[in-house]
Amino acid sequence: MSEDDHHTDRKRPNILVTGTPGVGKTVTASLIAEKTGLKHINVGELIAKHKCYDGHDAELDTHILDEDKLLDLMETMFQECADEGVGIVADYHSCELFPERWFDLILVLRTKTEELFDRLTERGYNEKKRSENVEAEIMQVVLEEARESYDLEIVQEVQSNTVEDMESNVERCKVWMEHWIANNS
């Protein structure tokens, strides 16, 4: 099966919601799943549940990802969903590790730095982790990673500062999905 066959076999699209930690990925992806019937995969929870890591980085207080284990696990999930005619909305703070063929839309959430700083402080992030994430947002690290890893036509940058932004992003995804289904049936 070629990569193109994989895409055209699917009845529903797959969406990746990505962005710096604290921009609202999980909440947005959950709402998209709720409004569209897509299956939500919180990649961070998947990593924890299936122990897809190889040790711990004490300085950043985070696990060291075992990409191969994660991708093998997700490949199976994507295939099962495709076989069942179900699309996926996944959320994760990184995007370059996923195969291009998995996703039809990459939604990159962006947040003002003051807002992001407050959200990460509320989460209890240490100073180093918080400042690295705020700097990553300023430098558009995840957006650039998405633009380098995927066809530019499928990468959408959207604001995620307020509840209204989130609702608008969810509605945009719902409309986009309706068009995708109409164009791919």
UniProtKB/TrEMBL annotation:
Enzyme class per UniProt: transferase
Annotated residues for binding of ATP: 22, 24-27, 123
Localization, UniProt: Cytoplasm; Nucleus
GO cellular component terms attached to this protein's record: cytoplasm; nucleus
EC number(s) per entry: 2.7.4.3
Region NMPbind, residue ranges: 42-65
GO biological-process terms attached to the record: ribosomal small subunit biogenesis; rRNA processing
Gene3D superfamilies: P-loop containing nucleotide triphosphate hydrolases
Region annotation (LID) ranges: 122-132
Key words, A-Z: ATP-binding, Cytoplasm, Kinase, Nucleotide-binding, Nucleus, Ribosome biogenesis, rRNA processing, Transferase
GO function term, MF aspect, one: ATP binding
Substrates-to-products reaction catalysed: ATP + H2O = ADP + phosphate + H(+); AMP + ATP = 2 ADP
UniProt subunit comment: Interacts with small ribosomal subunit protein uS11. Not a structural component of 43S pre-ribosomes, but transiently interacts with them by binding to uS11.
Function: Broad-specificity nucleoside monophosphate (NMP) kinase that catalyzes the reversible transfer of the terminal phosphate group between nucleoside triphosphates and monophosphates. Has also ATPase activity. Involved in the late cytoplasmic maturation steps of the 40S ribosomal particles, specifically 18S rRNA maturation. While NMP activity is not required for ribosome maturation, ATPase activity is. Associates transiently with small ribosomal subunit protein uS11. ATP hydrolysis breaks the interaction with uS11.
Family, per entry: Belongs to the adenylate kinase family. AK6 subfamily.
Protein name: Adenylate kinase isoenzyme 6 homolog
